[in-house]
């Protein structure tokens, strides 16, 4: 039970207990004032004291229904009933007893007890006042009905509130679990993109260079050694990427300073081979500073696209064009390779961005996180143009 609700229940209990003892004392004082020398006076005083002692012992037997609590409630009701028979003025003590019965018994049993107490109170008052007395006949049932209705309604509202709180807590737990699952899936997707754009591409390049070196080892040992040295350089670069990847840092080219343009030129220089020339063009001036997530995404997109050009396009020239507008920055990667049909599933020989089913989805996922868009234009024999656009916040 929440703390405020416990405080309200405690306050109501204190009020009811206080009201009981006030009514009990007032009833005894009224009886003594009118019948001090009557034959029943000792019994009235003894029963009043017994009822007070029994009522005080109530908290000691607990508040939950059980044999001890039910026995205690039966003794209290019996003592009160004897008092009412001997002195009808004690009938008003029934109101706090309504509350006690309603808190102790199940609803139907509690309502039956309230009806019994009310009937005893009415009968005693009618015997005292004489018949007919509409006030005596109607007032006790009306008070009992109001008290019972208010208590039952409050109990039902509390039960509905508790059920609602349970539903909210359960919903929060389910939502937290869903968020954790979504976070795990998002992190897996991020890891997959990072591995694809760094380690997987580096390993693929090393494999191609080592295979070429193996073929040329006997006929052109100098060229073969160049291929091996290139593979070693790529391995060193991949190792640096892996270390930064583990520490969740920026790409190695960006970490070296110089910004996105310098990083793109470094990538173009590494990707340039005797059979493939990679150039970098710029239009406009990139904002300074450019948001780190945007720089990282554009660099990874360039790396992925150039890796696909190298492996699948059979191109001789690839151009990276960085266009800086007021509200967005655009990276275009074009090549003069064999091209492909963007409307069909990527084939093994598909160029830029269509690498084995991972390139384009990875690029689109990066852009989607930044609110960007991807456009791919290609046709068999006519090369490929990939355009990645990312919106920029107003400066």
Automatic annotation (TrEMBL):
Its main location: cytoplasm. The chain crosses the membrane at residues 12-33, 40-58, 70-99, 111-131, 137-154. This is Oxygen sensor histidine kinase NreB. It holds the Pfam family HATPase_c. CDD domains: HATPase_UhpB-NarQ-NarX-like (cd16917). The lineage of its organism: Bacteria, Bacillati, Actinomycetota, Actinomycetes, Kitasatosporales. Its cofactor is [4Fe-4S] cluster. Keywords: 4Fe-4S, Cytoplasm, Iron, Iron-sulfur, Kinase, Membrane, Metal-binding, Transferase, Transmembrane, Transmembrane helix, Two-component regulatory system. InterPro entries: HATPase_C_sf, HATPase_dom, His_kinase_dom, Sensor_HK_TwoCompSys, Sig_transdc_His_kin-like_C, Sig_transdc_His_kin_sub3_dim/P, Sig_transdc_His_kinase_ChrS. Member of the two-component regulatory system NreB/NreC involved in the control of dissimilatory nitrate/nitrite reduction in response to oxygen. NreB functions as a direct oxygen sensor histidine kinase which is autophosphorylated, in the absence of oxygen, probably at the conserved histidine residue, and transfers its phosphate group probably to a conserved aspartate residue of NreC. NreB/NreC activates the expression of the nitrate (narGHJI) and nitrite (nir) reductase operons, as well as the putative nitrate transporter gene narT. GO terms for molecular function: 4 iron, 4 sulfur cluster binding; metal ion binding; phosphorelay sensor kinase activity; protein dimerization activity. Residues 337-358, 376-395 are annotated as: Disordered. It is found in: Cytoplasm. GO terms for cellular component: cytoplasm; membrane. It is an enzyme of class 2 (transferase). It comes from Streptomyces alanosinicus. PROSITE patterns: HIS_KIN. It catalyses: ATP + protein L-histidine = ADP + protein N-phospho-L-histidine. Its EC number is 2.7.13.3. Residues 298-394 form the Histidine kinase domain.
